[in-house]
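QA checklist item 7 of 12: single-chain prediction sanity check.
[x] sequence parsed
[x] length recorded as 125
[x] structure emitted
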Amino acid sequence: MSKKDDSYDAFCVAKILRDMLDTLPDESHDDLFWTIRQLVKRRDSLVQGIIIAKNQINAQLTYVYPSYKEYFCDVDTKTAMYFWETYPHPKHLKGVQPKALLEELRTVHRGTTVKKVNQILILSE
């Protein structure tokens, strides 16, 4: 067929709908399934957005704190988020004593250890 393009397809669909409207079956539209489908699509979109945001923060953190994965395996934990907000660059850690940092991080997560704090300070130099 020599006349094959989108506008011709649209013309053919419109012609069939016009000529055969009485014989075409009714489309049963179940609102419940439609709503669920829309929610699933929205959730997938949100998950994709979260993945993109995590990849972006990972790239930025790798630039500023090259070994951050050794002391925060997940970038979005409460402790990690508090740390990134308080110390966005290693220069902000200059002069911070391990005990003071430990007490500060324990206000966010009681399970923070002296070992982890020392590791953060050593790897952030």
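[x] summary fact logged: The chain has one domain: 30-123.
[ ] second reviewer sign-off
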